[in-house]
Amino acid sequence: MKTIVIILSILSSIIYAQVDRSKMPEPGLAPKIEIADYQSFQLENGLKVFVIENHKLPKISFSLLIDRDPINENDAAGYVSAAGELLRTGTINRTKDQIDEQVDFIGAALSTSPTGVFASVLKKHVDTLLNLMSDLILNSEFADEQLDKILLRMKSEIAMAKDDPSAIASNVRKVLLFGKDHPYGELTTEETIDNITLDKCKEYYRNFFKPNIAYLAVVGDITLDEAKPLIEKYFGKWQTGDVPQFTYKKPEPPAGLNIAIVDRPNAIQSVINIAYPVQLKIGDADEIKAKVTNTILGGGVFRLFNNLREKHAYTYGAYSVLANDKLIGNFNAFADVRNEVTDSAVTEILYEMKRLKEEAVPDDELQGVKNYLTGNFVMSLESPQTIASFAINTERYNLPEDYYATYLQKIASVTSHDVKEAAQKYIKPEDNYILIVGNADLIKQKMSKFGSLTFYDRFGNKVDTSAVDLNAEGVTAEQILGKYIYAIGGREKFSAVQDRITEMSGKVQGIDVNMTVYQKSPDLLRQEVNAGLMNQVIIYNGSQGIMKASGQEINITGQELEKLKYEATLSLLLKYDEFGIKLKLTGTPIVDGKDSYQVEMIFPGGTKWIQYYDKETGLKLKEEKNVTTPQGTFTQETLFSDYREVEGLKFPFKIVQKMGAQSLQFEVSSIKINAGIDDGKFEIK
User: Fold this and answer.
1) From start to end of 342-497, where are the E strands?
2) pTM of the entire structure?
3) Phi/psi zone of residue 539: left (φ > 0), alpha (ψ -120 to 50 degrees), beta?
4) Distances (CA, A) of 141 to 94, 370, 605
5) Are residues 453 and 566 in the same domain?
6) Which of 41-50, 209-218, 317-326, 472-481 bottoms out in mean pLDDT, i.e. has the lowest?
7) Strands 214-220, 257-263: parallel, antiparallel or unpaired by DSSP?
8) Are residues 443 and 486 in the same domain?
9) So what's the pLDDT on residue 6?
């Protein structure tokens, strides 16, 4: 035993001496990937079918892809998406309820889109599923009532997203890069949804759901011999036909730095996008080099992330995308940063883009990125659907047969010189759009150092800020506030209100919410919220504020307490000057289709409320405030409409509150004035 220990010790010493641990090990050869084989056949009607066997589970999935050109939808943008949803809502043989019932009965998945259908089920139910799937593809019958539901949901989604800075940035970026006359630059709006008709949706289905431009991937516990008769049985009668084709002018990258700003007056962060169109198609010779190059820059937790987050603490994350496309690709570097560091963050993004073009990437950094991409690729192979997409892409884009089999070898062969060459071709720190969605007042002066500023609305339309001469309007902020007080009933009636009880109800994420607000002069407030299992009470007694929720009681202090005092004061608008509140007329925007005056209320502590008043009626249309929560500070937008008279005063009976992606619509059920509220309602014990 002693001899064995000595021998092992000697061997360990020899091995240790032969390994130089001061140097990183040399990278090995790229692993050889064994990608599952696929088999294919074609029906007489042109449908191309790929079969990928995977017998681990008794399950089969079917992915149908319609390979059409992008479509310009013009003034009915959104109808293609609506047609894709309508495919799932009924056929000449089945109603939507019957389809849903059959899908549920066999435990299947069945979904549709404008460019295809996906279905999945246990093998024993495959005939039932294919009968359903083929019925949708061959015999869809669209109905007005189903379209109305789809359009209502589309409008609801647009309403929820219209004040989301990230959604605004996405919309404006599309317009800047591609233009509104290009299918990639079109925006779906409430106005275009109003132009969507059932006939247009039917026309799309008739024109483009043709087997001669379709691919079908069959993946799972099935062989080629089993698949052929099934596909022939259910899709052999699918009629071929001519399909419209389209060509579009290729968007070009801009010259120089083009600074685009969308003003969000109460925004506490700036959404930054540095973007431009790119001529990079799927399967291009330098596609892999471009992918490695972008990954180094911001395709993961690499340079942009390390610079803006780890080094400077400007953001939670910063990334970039270099997307290829058969029509036109694009580049986008993006981050959400604090207002005060917007220009600094842009400087750092441009610096990293420029550095990638000018400096050779160190070997260890390059190898780390290769390892990252290799790992992601290998992990993706665990999904049979990945193999299906490989099969379809190879045929669809005329790729070499070994394109995916040699993918890792191509990544491994990328050199530092290749990266620099690709960066010089595709990374453009000197020619791009720098799009900022944020508080223009806080960022425009610093951003002007990059170039001249152009302002846009949330739909990508230019806003001519020089065209609005507020002095020429002939009104002041004080006059606008006075008109509002007159419009709701007058100063005398307003000042006679000693207390008010407002009851309202709404729904958020399927949960019923009931709220009662008690206010009493001069500055007492009690707000009760009941939302199922969640109840919340906020009380302000004139000097102290508390919040009770989930069995806990939290004292409200500091700036939030100061805000609560203003919220509680019934006569605030009548005595704004006594509170040291400054009024400022800052714009004349359009709010929900109405011309308005934008008025800032600036409080002594720095708090700012932004209010929008209808030019014609004088009534308040909207209000924006910053709200601090445990999750951070957010802009809360409140929309007011449906004004009704209560004891000689007008109040809004429809109130919509939005904060981030959350939207809550309240319907006021009761307003009581001078009800004699007992002071005990506002006691803090």
Assistant:
1) 432-438, 453-456, 462-463
2) 0.76
3) beta
4) 9, 50, 61
5) no
6) 472-481
7) unpaired
8) no
9) 39
